[in-house]
UniProtKB/TrEMBL annotation:
It holds the Pfam family ADH_zinc_N. It comes from Lentinus tigrinus ALCF2SS1-6. Transmembrane segments: none annotated. Residues 15-381 form the Enoyl reductase (ER) domain. This is GroES-like protein.
């Protein structure tokens, strides 16, 4: 395939988002070219505009987008796991379910073996805020029949941020707890019956952290969220949901009883603002571990209180991209199992809200994310619907 496509560009640092034309990239030997049906929005997308995260961008105009689901259009010569299928006249049921008006579109390829969920990256040809992009075949998974494109697009970054923080074994990575993964011997028994505390359970990352904790047999699984998300989080595996608006002191006072008196060896802070980091650090037991998804800002006075005899609290960050060389092996292990996890309901996607106007609807969606006006939901754009 050759020619041009529509893409959403960030024109410059602190610049504007503008829909324009981009060349359709050609896959290398180990890549696939994907027609992006659904792309999810993430906080990193608005943070890239003008913040310390902007240093990730190498040149402008820049295409963002780290979550995608779509249809394999071309496969590199070394790719054997994903192939382009036959063009059908009837649209797949998962695709029908996500049409705005309930009608189908015969302009899309519908062989189910071609449906792919994948993570984009911070390079234009790999990003998902466009109609076609490249992805290494080893870090993609086929979408099972019970998951729509929109739902699938809600998965990659959030799930990777949960999985890599716990299970990445790469010796070069300093952003992992190196727990035994659930696909390895002992991975589902290492923490069986031990409590886990997930701060920010209704966030996309928080929802996947809850499910990964359940997969590892942590119990009970305690989380914080707005009360209206209680039913959702219970369905994912949370056993106790605390109102996130409670004072830190109140939450800390409730944790021992909810954990049945057991020490909290694992705390995952899916929000990682100053107040939640302080909560996470105080909640973890000596010798326990805390995961932060943003740079550490734990007050020094809290760390001093934790000094003394015995092990302190281990604090780890995470870089939730399976494209990074240090994360690649763990990412491949995750994607090799993702289709099965989705088929069996072990991993459930986020609830989604589809934005209007394809790529042109993304800037308003990012403004909502920046203003914290999205809760328990993943915003989705459909690049093929761009005016």
């Amino acid at each position: 395939m050759s020619g041009t496509q529509k893409a959403l560009y960030l024109t410059a640092r602190a610049g504007q988002w503008v829909v324009g034309e981009a060349p359709i990239p050609r896959p290398g030997p180990k890549d696939v070219l994907v027609k992006v049906v659904s792309a999810a929005l993430n906080p990193i997308d608005w943070k890239l505009v003008d913040s310390p995260f902007s240093s990730i961008i190498q040149s402008y105009p820049f295409i963002s987008g780290t979550d995608g689901a779509g249809i394999v259009e071309e496969a590199g010569e070394d790719v054997t796991t994903l192939v382009k299928g036959d063009k059908m006249t009837e649209v797949h049921e998962a695709q029908k379910a996500q049409q705005h008006d309930g009608t189908s579109s015969d302009s899309l390829w519908t062989h189910c073996d071609m449906y792919s969920v994948f993570q984009g990256y911070f390079a234009n040809e790999l990003a998902t805020f466009q109609q076609y992009c490249l992805v290494p075949a080893a870090i993609t998974a086929k979408i099972p029949d019970n998951i729509s494109f929109d739902e699938a697009a809600s998965i990659p970054l959030g799930l990777a941020t949960a999985v890599l923080a716990l299970y990445n074994q790469d010796p070069k990575s300093d952003k992992t707890l190196r727990f035994t993964p659930p696909w390895a011997e002992g991975g589902t028994s290492q923490f069986a019956g031990k409590p886990a505390f997930i701060i920010g359970g209704s966030s996309s990352v928080g929802q996947y952290a809850i499910q990964i904790a359940k997969l590892a047999n942590f119990s009970p699984i305690i989380t914080t969220a707005s009360p209206h998300n209680t039913t959702l989080l219970a369905s994912l595996g949370a056993t106790h949901i605390l109102d996130r608006a409670l004072p830190t002191s109140t939450i800390l006072s409730k944790l021992p009883a909810l954990a049945s008196g057991k020490p909290l060896e694992f705390v995952y802070d899916a929000i990682s603002l100053a107040d939640t980091q302080a909560l996470a650090y105080q909640a973890a037991c000596r010798g326990g571990a805390v995961v932060l998804v943003l740079p550490e800002v734990i007050p020094e006075e809290l760390k001093k209180e934790n000094e003394g005899d015995g092990d302190g609290v281990r604090v780890s960050g995470v870089f939730g991209s399976v494209h990074h060389p240090d994360n690649r092996r763990c990412g491949e292990e995750m994607y090799a199992r993702l289709t099965g996890w989705l088929e069996k309901g072990i991993i459930k996607p986020n609830r989604v809200e589809v934005l209007p106007n394809g790529l042109a609807g993304i800037p308003d969606g990012l403004a909502r994310l920046e203003a914290f006006k999205v809760s328990g939901m993943k915003l989705i754009a459909r690049p093929q619907e761009t005016p």
